[in-house]
User: Fold this.
Amino acid sequence: EKMPTAFVCNCDETAMHVIDALKKKGISVPEDVSVAGFDNYISSGTVSSPLTTVNIDPAVTARAAVEIIIKKINGLPYNHGHTVISGKLLLRDSVKKIS
Assistant:
């Protein structure tokens, strides 16, 4: 059965569960497959194989949410679509370096 080259998970906790499941199957991270998460969960950098993740500043996220709520309360126009918040990729040991 062909494996993907990487798993990109919706959060670090899920990514850590994926790594555990892969290890139980004898699949090495990152040698056999790369795994990345999202949210820079507090323990993601301290596990045996530190997890590559995307860090989003919670204060920026909260500020964007509060601005939308205040606009809605005051009857002002606001973006009904997606709000884009920049993050920072934290490269750690769960993603294989390729050249």
In short: The longest strand covers residues 6-8.
